[in-house]
Each structure stands twice: as structure tokens, then as C-alpha cells.
């Protein structure tokens, strides 16, 4: 769902209110499911790091370098997903889970592998990029406009 949210908020050439709201809301719902599952466990399959964590991490984890390098009001616990403005700040267990995984040596090594895909550079940049903050602000604005349009009927 997070991938669809990113597409409709950031990359779609035409703004569609319904899919923006649907996929952003669904991403938050799924974050909530993960939050519940992590209430009494450090990892998705109880207390052991497993393929469940590996498979879920890249889709359900925040992109810490994005926030820390380009968002003036980002805090240590704040996390966001790409250019959509979706945060995990209301999901402390999910945020802690992602941070635990990000601290693993093999994950650090994997995330450090360069990739020439432009979206990857946006999501995991280590240096501030001038257009990144604008993309984040545009994404948040599009989501707010989509919600307002749908609420009007």
C-alpha cells in the first residue's frame, strides 16, 4: 500500500483524490496492524529476526536519512516514507522495530549499496537535496487536498 501511496501522491501526472486518500489511509491501517503485532515482541515472528522482518522492512520501514537530512523539524523518533509525508511517529513499536533492523550490520551494509535509480536516491539520500523538501511539502498538500475533496462529497 505504501508503494501505491507514494505513486499517487508523488509521481502520478494527474491528481486523483480517492486513491491518494485510500492508499495513505491503508498504509496507516497496516502500520497499526504491525504496531499491534509488535506489542509483545521485538520482531514480527516473536523474538527472533526472520524472513518476515526482512521482507517487511523495506516496505513498512521509515526512511530515516530522508527525514534527518532534509526535514528541519524531524526528531530522532520521527520517521517518514519517501516523499508522501506518511510518518510512523504514532507507532512507537513499529519505529523501534525499524530502528532495531537498521542497526543490524548486514542491513547497514545492504542499505549502503549505491543504486542509480532516482527514486532510491530520493528515499535514502544522505545529503540534503534542494527539491526533496518541496516534494515532501507537495505530497502532504496533495494528501490534505484529497481528503478535503472527498469529505465535501
Q: In whole angstroms, how far apart are the ends? A: 24 Å
Strand content: under 5%
Q: How many strand elements?
A: 2
Strand-pairing-aware structural class: mainly alpha
Number of H- or I-type helical stretches = 8
Mean pLDDT value: 74
Query: Main sheet?
Result: 2 strands, antiparallel
The low-confidence parts are 64-81
Describe the structure using short key phrases.
single chain, 153 residues, mainly alpha
Q: Can you lay out the helices and strands and say which pair or pack?
A:
Elements lengths: L1 H10 L5 H21 L13 H10 L3 H7 L9 E2 L4 E2 L4 H11 L2 H7 L6 H6 L6 H23 L1
Antiparallel strand pairs: 1-2
Describe the protein in words.
The structure is a single chain. This protein is mainly alpha-helical and 153 residues long. It has eight helices and two strands, in the order H-H-H-H-E-E-H-H-H-H. The chain has helices spanning 2-11, 17-37, 51-60, 64-70, 92-102, 105-111, 118-123, 130-152; strands spanning 80-81, 86-87. Strands 1-2 form a two-stranded antiparallel sheet. A hairpin with a 4-residue loop joins strand 1 and strand 2. Helix 1 runs antiparallel to helix 2 (17-37) and helix 2 packs across helix 8 (130-152).
TL;DR?
This protein has 153 residues and is an all-alpha fold. It has helices at 2-11, 17-37, 51-60, 64-70, 92-102, 105-111, 118-123, 130-152, and strands at residues 80-81, 86-87. A hairpin with a 4-residue loop joins strand 1 and strand 2.
